[in-house]
Amino acid sequence: MIITIDGPASAGKGTLAAALAGHYNLAYFDTGMVYRAVGLDMMLNRLDIYQENLAEEVARKLTFEKMMSLSRNPEFRGPQGGKNASVVSAYPSVRAALLKMQQDFALEPKFSDGRPAAGVVYDGRDTGTVVCPDADIKFFITASPEVRAERRYKEFLAKGLNISYDEVLQDILARDERDSTRSAAPLKPAPDALILDTSLLSAAEVFAKACEIIDSH
Ligand code: DC
Predict the structure, then answer these.
(1) Is residue 29 helix, strand or coil?
(2) Residue nearest to atom 15 of ligand 1 (CA)
(3) Which of 125, 175, 181, 187 to mutate to test the pocket of ligand 1 (most atoms within 8 A of CB)?
(4) CATH code: domain of residue 64
(5) Which domain holds residue 80?
(6) Do 33 and 71 form a contact (C-beta atoms < 8 A)?
(7) Rounded CA gap, 21 and 125, in Å?
(8) Residue having the nearest C-alpha atom to atom 14 of ligand 1
(9) Residue having the nearest C-alpha atom to atom 2 of ligand 1
(10) Collapsed DSSP state (helix, strand, coil) of residue 121
(11) What is the pLDDT at residue 60?
């Protein structure tokens, strides 16, 4: 079984994807990691993220193992990591270079400890449109920019990061703009995606709704 969950930053995709993967015993692929890995690799090697050809070269050399290793760096999930990922993810050549790795995961899905899984929950921006257009169930999760900024701000505070709510909101708005206006795979729901607005719902309510939909499928 393949489930895809797409939507803008901090809409609750990751929380839902992890909960569904646990509940249905499926592997989980957070596809934002491939772009975060390229951005961080470039930053660590002092490469200019605004040069598409350099980003493409880094993307071509990225392996799943290298991505997992880079994900242990504290910068990977930080504000700069998110910004760099958003910039490199807008390059068509970078997206093309990283597509196969994302698609191959569904051929042999694995849990994080290496055990084989019967399917996968993907989360990202284009997993239902480009990565797995034939997925069994597709969700598009969204929420207002203010609600998403509040959620991300709280996450950063919990990590001890010194950042204001306004900075987080501006960053969310800038990322929405970049993610939805880029020429390569702009953020939009697949025609057959189920759209869930989580602005007024708790994580538990979103999970319950998604399970209801999957169980009736
Ligand atoms: O979900 P995230 O914040 O980890 O994603 C980081 C960036 O990667 C974000 O700006 C959008 C981009 N991304 C993408 O373009 N396509 C995906 N499937 C996943 C993420």
Answers:
(1) strand
(2) 89
(3) 125
(4) 3.40.50.300
(5) 2-216
(6) yes
(7) 18
(8) 125
(9) 32
(10) strand
(11) 98
pLDDT band per the 50, 70, 90 thresholds, residue 108: very high
Kindly state the tokens that stand for 45.
């090697």
In ligand 1, the atom with minimum distance to the C-alpha of 85 is 7
The per-residue pLDDT for range 70-107, each reduced to its tens digit, is: 999 999 998 899 889 989 999 999 999 999 999 999 99
Q: For 49-202, where are the alpha helices, taking DSSP H only? A: 52-61, 64-70, 79-88, 92-107, 145-158, 165-181
**Number of domains forming the structure of the chain:** 1
* CA dist., res. 148 & res. 154, Å (int): 10
Phi-psi region of 185 (alpha: psi -120 to 50; beta: other; left: phi over 0): left
Give which of 114, 216, 176, 7 is closest to 15, Cα–Cα.
7
Which protein residue has the closest C-alpha to ligand 1 atom 10?
A: 86
30 C-alpha to center of ligand 1: Å? 9
